[in-house]
Amino acid sequence: MKIEDKLVESVINGLKALYGQEVPVKMVQLQKTKKEFEGHLTLVVFPFLKMSRKGPEQTALEIGEYLKANEPAVAAFNVIKGFLNLTIASATWIELLNGIQADEQYGLVKATEKSPLVMIEYSSPNTNKPLHLGHVRNNLLGNALANIVAANGNKVVKTNIVNDRGIHICKSMLAWKKYGNGETPENSGKKGDHLVGDYYVSFDKHYKAEIAGLMAKGMTKEEAEAASPLMQEAREMLVKWEAGDPEVRALWTMMNNWVYAGFDETYKKMGVSFDKIYYESDTYLEGKEKVMEGLEKGFFFKKEDGSVWADLTAEGLDHKLLLRGDGTSVYMTQDIGTAKLRFADYSIDKMIYVVGNEQNYHFQVLSILLDKLGFEWGKGLVHFSYGMVELPEGKMKSREGTVVDADDLMEEMIATAKETSEELGKLDGLTKEEADDIARIVGLGALKYFILKVDARKNMTFNPKESIDFNGNTGPFIQYTYARIQSVLRKAKESGIVIPKEIPAGIQLSEKEEGLIQMVADFAATVKQAGEDYSPSIIANYTYDLVKEYNQFYHDFSILREENEALKIFRIALSANVAKVVRLGMGLLGIEVPSRM
């Protein structure tokens, strides 16, 4: 039983004994005692003044006396105005630690048959270019969110929608056809997604040159863009694709397969995976069908040019285009089609879309449309909206090839981690394989933690150098502390110390040790909070605070050299449980922790 639950029960009994009143659980408010006051937990007594008919201090005093006499968990108390600060007995903290130690998955709730099914969509790449830094933030947030939602007792399906059709895909295809000379990933040694991305950049370069040539002949920019033969060819290719032209489709399949092989490598390295992948080339026709159905039912209306629209003025929004006059679909149509396929595949209770904040309006509209079309989870869909990620140098652009490539970024992070670790002597005495693995764990951990510790809603600047610091609020600092605890546990084992299943009570703990147990115990509430707020940064910052607190304890107290045997074993057990919670917390963020460093 949690200490808080035990105290709430005792407070309710106390109020009945003192004032003859039954009170509901929600009236008893306990919070962590502020650092400047003595105590662990504070009871707010203002709600009880009506029944006590006394001032706040007198009421707090009476409740404190009752708890001290009747609740063994309370060792002492003090009163500050209407706040009753309670000091919890050492034996109660040890009992709490024993409970945490007995649970290998402390703080994580397992899903059952009856648990709700939550589907989380993230990644959503285009098949005309490799994944970049923006995708890295999206993938890491989506993956962490899926882990956190699952740790709160939900069944989770991780899904990806690949944007594999449209004019931008035709641009890469056309450029390869014109300028590729049969180049393939095999004969060029390039990853498939990088190869296709190069042709997307190549199209833009030739297109710009063409526009400049036409403008030199006296055309305005608009006229030149309208007259561009290259863009005309790309549009014709899209029409052929939509009509199922065998040659265009064969080229499309070949180049997309190159890209998927490249994506798979990137996802694997990033530690990200999906349960189901959907493709827009499958979903857009389903979306058209659903829109036509909505038109028949009178949810939507047709304009003279044949385009189909939704009138959302009643919801305080405007008119939204769903099908163009020529019958081609827009993103909204595709999202409706994807929803239809997903609903056929899974009985979804909640749908979460991990998409940047520039799409806020899109998801507001999508929610209304899905609800109108009869999707039960439409109204309650969650748009997990996150801010942009930039580099210290500023914005990135795909067309111009100035994007930070995800693969290059991960490689650079691993190389920097190796260099930094070698300088600090953290890889001494390891084999090349061990050193390389630690560099990978630390480099990727630094990248993931730096991105996930920031509140997702905020725009952020990713600074690779700052992220690999072994001090401060970074992944490597947390990983290093974990490795340090593993070293303590190995030495304890070598000297024959075995942590018992139950630490005996009767040890007098210091304030620092009690505070550390309290922080470890807070992990369960932190996971719950992160799930309710859809916020991986809550887990990241909790883990950093716990590690910071443990490092102070490690610095101030002897562990293996402690002469009192019972206290030594307690401190080793406390260290082991701190490490366990750090491993679980970092695991939720998709970050590995090394056992030596």
General description of the model:
The structure is a single chain. The chain is α/β, with parallel strands linked by helices and 597 residues long. Helix content is 55%, strand content 11%. It has 4 domains: 3-88, 2-Layer Sandwich (Gyrase A, domain 2), CATH 3.30.1360.70; 165-274, no CATH class; 276-404, HUPs (Rossmann fold), CATH 3.40.50; 406-588, Isoleucyl-tRNA Synthetase, Domain 1, CATH 1.10.730.10. It has helices at residues 3-19, 49-52, 56-70, 90-101, 133-151, 167-179, 185-188, 192-216, 221-227, 229-242, 246-270, 280-296, 331-345, 360-372, 406-423, 432-452, 464-467, 475-494, 511-533, 536-556, 565-588, and strands at residues 30-32, 41-44, 74-80, 83-88, 117-121, 155-162, 276-279, 300-302, 308-311, 319-323, 350-356, 382-386, 389-390, 460-461. The strands form 4 sheets. The protein has a 5-stranded parallel sheet, sandwiched between helices. It has a 4-stranded antiparallel sheet with strand order 1-2-4-3. A 3-stranded antiparallel sheet has the order 8-9-10. A hairpin with a 2-residue loop joins β3 (74-80) and β4 (83-88). α6 packs across α8 (192-216) and α8 (192-216) crosses α9 (221-227). The longest helix is centred in the middle third of the chain and has 25 residues, at 192-216. One of its GO terms (biological process) is arginyl-tRNA aminoacylation. A motif ('HIGH' region) lies at residues 125-135.
Helix/strand-derived category reads alpha/beta
Write down the overall geometry.
globular
Query: Please, what is the oligomeric state?
Result: single chain
CATH fold descriptor of the largest domain: Isoleucyl-tRNA Synthetase, Domain 1
Report the helical percentage.
55-70%
Level-1 CATH class name of the largest domain = Mainly Alpha
Low-pLDDT residue spans: 396-401
Number of separate domains: 4
Widest sheet, order of strands? 7-6-5-11-12
Bin the strand percentage.
5-15%
What summary fits the major beta sheet?
Answer: 5 strands, parallel
